[in-house]
Amino acid sequence: MTGAGPDERADAVVVGAGLTGLVTAVRLARTAGPGRRVLLLEAGGEPGGRARTTDHRGYRLGLGPRALYRTTRDELRALGVRVPGGEPDLSGSLALRDGALHPGYAAPGPLLRTGLLAPRERLAVARLLALSRGRPNLAGTDAARWLADRLPTERAREAAFAVLRVSAYAGRPEMIDAGALAAHFAGVRRGVTYVDGGWRTLVDALLGRARALGVETRTGCRVTAVEGGARPRLTLADGHGIRARSVVLAGLPQRAAHRLLDEPGPAGPPGRPLHTACLDVALSRLPDPRRTLVLGVDEPLYLSVASQTARLAPDGGAVLHLARYDDGSGLGATEVRKRLDELLDLCQPGWREVLVHERFLPRITTMTAVPEARTGGLPGRPGPRVPGRPGVFVAGDWVGQRGLLADACVLSGARAAEEAAARL
Ligand SMILES: Cc1cc2nc3c(=O)[nH]c(=O)nc-3n(C[C@H](O)[C@H](O)[C@H](O)COP(=O)(O)OP(=O)(O)OC[C@H]3O[C@@H](n4cnc5c(N)ncnc54)[C@H](O)[C@@H]3O)c2cc1C
């Protein structure tokens, strides 16, 4: 379709077919019931957004490491999407400090044995990570302050954050609100799933559900403006217009959403994005099957052999994900890559000889807006309604008062879908 012509009509339009948009479209179509016309528009060549998985001769590589939390899993199951996979075994996790590997902290067992902490420190860290004292009034306090208040030494704080960081992708504790981090970590402790086939399994299943419910999905379809309130009108990059009763901007960063709406955005301080460097690796054989989960302590590094838990590689092969979380140190891509290579050399010596495929992503956005203490933590995030635009809703990892990362996407997508469906 090109050019102006008469506007197309739809009941509801979801803009963006990442995880947020897919969940939103399925829930919207299901709540609205049969006979409603729901469109799902995606600018890219395929749906999935940052939840995409690529396939290299049977090796499934997500964009960076992927752990699906219970909240996301439960929301997907409620939409009829199965989540096949397994839970990683943390008991053999290792900690990397001063360039050497030590029995790690990722599970209570290794934490209580690690020689990197004195007994008093171990106990304090274990207690903090158990969140046994609850999380009273943590919103508005940054995680650095929380750790300083609760832990006796710098070494203990570093150890605790090594575990917390992995769950939230936050490179340093000053970056993130303690209430948001603690609530998220409590959810992560309920269990995580490494998904068979990668997150593409979920994207495909959601697309299947959407199709079965009659949602029309269009790729290569960029929305350039959304005007009006009660009966919004969308303009596409080719000039085509669509009028709908409800529009959900799903998974667009906050600034991008406000640009489409031609609105200045919130008056308060903007949420800052979180970036991570990722190295995704496929090997025909795993050189050392004992070194499969490593958490950096004095440097924000991570390594996981995801294929030990989920079906991601052909028999005998392995898929590994390495990451360096952004700690604000400003290291260039070459230096970051060098450090990830060194970690791989340490854990899986000889990996280059069995390399099938590698992909280095020096700076991918893991969260479009971190809930920070200065922005009020989770309670400071906006809801799905856009003030003054009754037919327009937003959803994504920066929307709603619950959840981080994919959890925030599915929870805010569900709420936006309910509100959008109520207008049809
Ligand atoms: C390296 C990495 C690791 C991660 N690990 C985890 C993890 O372990 N656990 C977890 O819970 N979360 C994790 N996440 C976060 C999770 O992947 C994201 O929160 C989620 O995939 C975001 O989905 P989304 O739909 O909100 O955004 P996106 O995936 O970015 O999708 C937005 C979509 O909108 C489209 N779009 C944008 N503008 C327009 C427009 N104008 N018109 C039409 N379409 C448009 C884009 O093309 C895109 O496809 C990770 C993220 C990354 C990057």
UniProtKB/TrEMBL annotation:
Pfam families: Amino_oxidase. InterPro entries: Amino_oxidase, FAD/NAD-bd_sf. Residues 19-270 form the Amine oxidase domain. This is FAD-dependent oxidoreductase.
